[in-house]
């Protein structure tokens, strides 16, 4: 008994994707499902660790794959080359995200009517985009996410509750962009929250982040506080 993992292949046309599902087999029956959207390097031990941590909290979590089975970046240049096509074609990104969400819903361990999504950095933008499409899920949580609007969802109504966990000094998501996000979410009718952590920059949940020049620094306090905020948010979504 304990936390179990299963690799799951799914497809977007000719592209084979591979996610990792985590669940606790000591829990009987379907339970709420959480989609975990990866940062710019692709699905990694980091996101899989988050999926396992969510499984330990009683959820079934799928660490998704946007780039393709076995496709990963190993340095900033490779990571950027993998991410950029999706930033330039947000409908393509949204299609692949919704396919990943449907794959999560299809798993026997998951209650398909109780679904949320979390994401980190690029993954934070991804889960905001899921909400922006008007997809019917309970909520999304963006950890130090990129915030720019996709340009193809104006007029949509956001059904998911939104929690943005943000480093106030993040050079990749400035206070001006936070204000723009607040206006966007309000115009789309969202139930939204923002937690901003002072003296905190990008990638604050990642212990490997240590690049002052790039503006990516781990912050233990913000990491701990944001994870607690996420737990409270999920508890409200599924047990209130």
Question: Can you walk through the features of this model?
Answer:
With 240 residues, the chain is of the alpha/beta class. It has one domain: Rossmann fold. The chain contains 6 helices and 10 strands; from the N terminus they run E-E-E-H-E-H-H-E-H-E-E-H-E-E-E-H. Helix 3 packs across helix 4. The chain starts with a strand and ends with a helix. The mean pLDDT is 97.
- Structural class by SSE content: alpha/beta
SSE order = EEEHEHHEHEEHEEEH
Low-confidence stretches: none
Helical percentage: 25-40%
Number of domains: 1
Q: Report the CATH architecture.
A: 3-Layer(aba) Sandwich
Number of beta strands: 10
Q: Tell me the CATH superfamily.
A: Alpha/Beta hydrolase fold, catalytic domain
Describe the global form. globular
Task: Give a topology summary.
Elements: E1 3-12, E2 15-24, E3 31-37, H1 45-56, E4 60-63, H2 76-88, H3 90-105, E5 110-120, H4 122-132, E6 139-143, E7 161-167, H5 175-187, E8 192-197, E9 210-211, E10 216-217, H6 220-239
Helix pairs in contact: 3-4
């Amino acid at each position: 008994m304990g936390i179990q993992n299963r690799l799951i292949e799914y497809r977007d046309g000719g592209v084979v994707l591979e996610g990792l599902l985590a669940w606790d087999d000591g829990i009987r029956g379907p339970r709420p499902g959480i989609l975990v959207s990866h940062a710019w390097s692709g699905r990694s031990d980091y996101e899989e660790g988050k999926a396992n941590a969510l499984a330990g909290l009683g959820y079934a979590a799928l660490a998704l794959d946007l780039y393709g089975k076995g496709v990963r970046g190993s340095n900033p240049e490779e990571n950027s080359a993998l991410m950029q096509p999706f930033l330039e074609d947000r409908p393509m990104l949204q299609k692949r995200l919704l396919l990943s969400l449907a794959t999560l819903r299809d798993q026997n361990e998951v209650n398909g009517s109780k679904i949320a999504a979390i994401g980190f950095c690029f993954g934070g933008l991804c889960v905001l985009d899921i909400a922006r499409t008007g997809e019917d899920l309970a909520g999304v949580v963006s950890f130090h996410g990129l915030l720019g609007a996709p340009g193809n969802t104006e007029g949509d109504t956001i059904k998911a509750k939104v929690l943005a966990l943000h480093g106030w000094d993040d050079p990749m998501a400035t206070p001006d962009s936070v204000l723009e996000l607040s206006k966007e979410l309000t115009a789309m009718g969202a139930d939204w929250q923002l937690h901003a952590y002072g003296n905190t920059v990008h990638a604050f949940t990642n212990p490997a982040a240590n690049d002052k020049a790039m503006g990516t620094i781990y912050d233990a306090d913000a990491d701990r506080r944001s994870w607690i905020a996420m737990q409270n948010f999920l508890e409200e979504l599924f047990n209130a």
